[in-house]
TrEMBL record:
Lineage: Bacteria, Bacillati, Actinomycetota, Actinomycetes, Kitasatosporales
Membrane-spanning segments: none
Protein name as it appears in the record: GNAT family N-acetyltransferase
Organism annotation: Streptomyces flavofungini
Pfam families in the record: Acetyltransf_3
Domain N-acetyltransferase, first and last residues per copy: 9-175
UniProt-listed InterPro entries: Acyl_CoA_acyltransferase, GNAT_dom, N-acetyltransferase
Amino acid sequence: MVTLETARLILRRWREEDIAPMAAVNADPEVMRWIRDGSVRDEEQTRRGVRAWESEWESQGFGLFAVEVRSTGELAGFTGLSVPHFLPEVLPAVEVGWRLGRSHWGQGLATEAAAAAVRFGFEERGLERIVSVTQVGNNASERIMAKLGMHPVRETVHPTCGRRVRVFELSSDQYVTTTR
């Protein structure tokens, strides 16, 4: 079982007791504003999502981590790596993504968590490139991508919801250069 630790966070695999707090994150319209069509998700949808994330760990050797705040043990949300099957034009690729509850915004936690996931992808899983996809207008996510050293490589339309998205990318060579 992979667990990553940062100064303020523990990135770990999912537990049953994570479902309700993650469902609360997914039920917040402001959190979900930039996710697909903006629809919120209920507890059963969240449970299915967590099962799928755990399955990806088994099949790919990477996946989405539950993000726990070290000082409180509270579940903040998720970060990690997944294959962006929803956007076939960027495949083959691995995407870094994150979703934190609003009470955890504005503290640098998403950047801290995503940076740990990127490091894991390049250093532990030997990935050649990592992408990140955000809807056009989601400036907060674009700022995180820039802090990760990513740069925009294309703009396209999300095939399931019709919203414009921007794809950012970081190669393993660029990662090595930026972490020296």
